[in-house]
Amino acid sequence: MSTADTNFDDAVRIQMVRLGAALYDRGLTPGRTGNLSVRADDQIMVTPTDSCLGRLDATRLAVTTLDGQHIAGDRPSKELVLHRALYRHHPTCTAVAHLHSTSAVAVSCLPDLNTDDALPPITPYFVMRVGRLPLIDYATPGSVELEQQVSRASERSRSVLMRNHGSLAAGM
Q1: Given 24, 79, 138, 145, which residue is catalytic?
Q2: What is the pLDDT of residues 71-110, one digit of tens each?
Q3: CA nearest to 116, candidates 136, 138, 134
Q4: Rounded to the nearest 10 degrees, how much is the dihedral formed by the CA atoms of 140, 146, 150, 153?
């Protein structure tokens, strides 16, 4: 299947490349860390595995079915399973970002965080946009264990903080 046979036109692909570059330029996901996805109908477009968000190529973005079957582009991120967990629990969500921000990782390493809600209601905007931020234990990136933890946490929130790893957030 070529990129022309997917649900994602050039404008959506270019928008993902620009967003990846903006996140990278702001230092929110250094090196070859983090991944982005968008959903359209029964397909997910996700950044390829081991890609740098600051140097994405619109023609190489991976496309899969909702169940993870690879149908176009480069090999999808090994952390696609995290994105799929959020899409399953939040069917109106159309995008997911997983970042390895130094600040988020640092916060996730603090002792005695509330696992049901790792951050207090810092601002009204945070409460409106994020709400509760569950903290899950460390598990190997891309592992079944991590997918299961994200799946459980995403039953009650569209955002998750992963201990020693980073953040995951779904948007509409």
Answers
A1: 79
A2: 999 999 999 999 999 999 999 999 999 999 999 999 999 9
A3: 134
A4: -100
